[in-house]
Design a protein that fits this description.
Distance between the termini: 40 Å
Mean pLDDT: 89
Number of helices: 9
Strand content: 15-25%
Radius of gyration: 18 Å
Length: 262
């Protein structure tokens, strides 16, 4: 349990103990990593302070509202002053108005489309741009995607389009940053019970469905995703970049149904 021993990094988007960012942070810390965190506001900073103090060695917490120009660069500069160069970044940031994840995708408003893409995709691109001077000789960046990036997924709507754009951005960023020794990948988790997922209509039924039809017949856990992140952020994946790693108990093999996903 020391794949990340001596490595330091930033986890962006930790919200609570039930988030994928928490599962990733937990496994990174267990494997010896030193963690710093960014959150969107003072409210979220106060919310995760006890979690960080209890579980992650009282790591640095920096406010970073990715919708504000220059905030990512400012936050990264502050973190570098406090912990020095880093080895990895986890981008676990996405948002869309949950009221627009219902009904027809074509009813998505312009404002929500732009806001969803800004927070969920452009923030990742800006992270890749602003972090180049954060790393030492090499580094690894991981973003979080979802199956709705490649198949039409019920009640996912514009978030599916955003995740498609995110996965494409991962490939382009990997091409750009490879010359700096920085690897860029994504993890696409199968259905997993998180607070964010509860905003997707019918999600509990999807969880039950995946247990029935996937080859492993079980839910994806936070630990499963965390372990995959450790692999991608560690030296064990030194020759992997521009990829999306599926952690889904075979969900990507089986799909949902021809009517829903083909």
């Amino acid at each position: 349990m020391n794949m990340m021993n001596g490595k330091k990094g930033i986890v962006m988007g930790l919200a609570n103990r039930f988030s994928i960012a928490y599962g990733i942070s937990e496994q990174l810390f267990k494997n010896g990593a030193t963690l710093a965190f960014t959150v969107a506001s003072d409210y979220f900073k106060e919310k995760i302070k006890p979690i960080v103090a209890e579980q992650f060695g009282d790591g640095v917490i920096e406010i970073c509202d990715v919708t504000t120009p220059g905030e990512i660069e400012r936050a990264f500069t502050s973190i570098k002053k406090q912990i020095g160069t880093i080895d990895f970044i986890v981008h676990s940031i996405a948002f869309s108005d949950k009221n627009e994840l219902k009904g027809m995708f074509v009813d998505t408003t312009r404002d929500n489309f732009l806001n969803t893409m800004n927070i969920s995709v452009y923030s990742f691109i800006e992270v890749c741009k602003c972090s180049q001077d954060m790393f030492g000789d090499n580094g690894s960046i991981v973003a979080l995607s979802y199956y709705g990036a490649e198949k039409v997924f019920p009640n996912y709507n514009v978030m599916g389009v955003a995740k498609s754009a995110l996965e494409s951005s991962v490939r382009y960023a990997a091409s750009d940053l490879g010359k700096f020794g920085i690897r860029v990948n994504a993890i696409s988790s199968g259905p997993i019970k998180t607070l964010a997922a509860s905003g997707i209509g019918g999600y509990s039924k999807i969880l039950g469905y995946t247990r029935d039809v996937t080859p492993l017949h079980k839910d994806v856990s936070l630990e499963n995703v965390g372990n995959a992140a450790v692999f991608l952020l560690s030296d064990a994946s030194a020759a992997i970049t521009g990829e999306t790693l599926y952690v889904d108990c075979g969900f990507n093999i089986m799909g949902m149904s021809h009517s829903a996903c083909e």
